[in-house]
Amino acid sequence: MSRKGAIIALTACLLVTAIAAFTLPNTFFDYDFEKFFKPSDPATAYFQEHRANFGTDNDYVLVAIENREGIFDPEFLLKIADFTAEAAKLPHVVDVTSPTNFKRNIREPLTGVLFERSLLTGDRARDSIAVSQDKTVMHNLFGDSLTALSIVLVTEAKLSKAKCDELASALKTITERFGFDETHLAGRAIGQVVYIKKISDEFQIFISLSLVFVVILLFAIFKSFRGVIIPLATVLLAVVWSIGILNFSGLGISILLNMLPPVIFVVGMSDAVHLYARYLEELRAGRPKPEAIRQMVRDTGLATFLTSLTTAIGFGSLYFTGIPALQEFGLITGAGVLAAFAIAITLLPALLVLLPQPRNVAQPANRLWSNRLRKTFLWIVQKRRPVIIVSVFITAFLAFFASQIELNNFILEDLKKSEPLRKDFSYFDTHFSGVRPFELGIKLPDSSGFLNPEHIKAIDQIEQNLRDDYGVSATVSLSTISK
């Protein structure tokens, strides 16, 4: 590479970097967990069909409120009524269901006329007995100990991060103003705010930690300012290019893509360190700088290309899983790995051409390390059969335990037990019927319709089995409504 060619290569790298950096303000964080489900899977197809017929199942916020003097206290219920009215005015709230506005359908025994009656009458003893015996509201609107009640805020479907932030902030403001004894919030809009903030914070932590470790590693290897700056510059540009690729693809940083910077740091640093170390070795061998750069690119450049290519293919193979989240992670990370190599093989030689040759390239003596490597190698060659046997035994031993790995989708376990969001979700699991809904869809083999006594009895039997066999504490169905 001539000096003119080096300037052209450096200019091209900086131009592409500027274009990628221009997209950085558009970077956003993706909270769509549905991407972890395979679209072609029959269960996913049925879920989409069910949601198209009955609406989304997680666009709501639950507000649990405790009152130490009892939830049937008249003054407390007046505050709940006011809170319900204000909650209905919050941004992006479609409907609010509360113990103070919940209506029951009553059939007049003589005429058969249907009319609505408020759930609560104002009589503490009577309301307490009625609520305890009503399975449609117990564990849904009222806690098991009747010391807390729940208010359901139905929100607009698939709220964006900005709208979730707006709703969460407004809801927090009014709950603090009413000054209830204890308040707990749960739901998609609340969880999304917390999780996206966690992803954003961890994204910055990963980049910062990677940067610190890289600087320490480079200084330990090369023990020079230039040996730190040149490889570090190539890696930082690789990260910018990778995020630029992500933004040009119109994708956001998901839980998986949150690992993109560390992966690019690792791969990009491997390329840069191998290339720069080979350059120094050629100089130590007495070759002039142009020949050292040529050897570096020709020999080590080919090796790093092959490792980068196979690594990119490995990530790209995730596309064939059919799971959108894994497909995005594999393709973007694979493209980032190739981008890291492209930067290393162009920017690093260009900088070496333009910069003067290092004055001191003498290899520091490290006989202890060389002797240990030599002795270890000779021992392995002499004991190759025991080494192979022990390796096979360890592999089989660990493979057995690897087969015992259990899969789960307990996303909340990613949070610390002291995290307020996890405590709030656990509160609903303990005192109410939980936060995560389960919907059971039923299809009839004919067109007889569900408004049939036999069908309603069958649904009632299903409900009974859910309560007896699976511990379901609260259900709402055609059966419960009919009763």
Average pLDDT number: 86
Secondary-structure content class: alpha+beta
Order of helices and strands: HHEHEEEHEHEHHHHHHHHHH
Percent helix: 55-70%
Strand order of the largest sheet: 2-5-1-6
Please work out how many helical segments DSSP would assign.
15
Let me know the number of strands.
6
Rg over C-alpha atoms, rounded to the nearest angstrom: 32 Å
Strand content: 5-15%
How would you sum up this structure in a few lines?
This protein is α+β, with helices and mostly antiparallel strands.
Descriptive notes:
It is a single chain. By secondary structure, this protein is α+β, with helices and mostly antiparallel strands. Helices cover 60% and strands 7% of the residues. A hairpin with a 6-residue loop joins strand 3 and strand 4 (114-118). The N and C termini lie far apart (85 Å). The strands form two sheets. The chain has a four-stranded antiparallel sheet with strand order 2-5-1-6, with helices on both faces. The protein has a two-stranded antiparallel sheet with strand order 3-4. The chain has helices spanning 3-22, 42-54, 74-87, 124-133, 161-178, 188-222, 225-248, 260-284, 289-316, 324-354, 367-382, 384-402, 420-431, 453-470, 478-482, and strands spanning 60-66, 93-97, 103-107, 114-118, 148-155, 182-187.
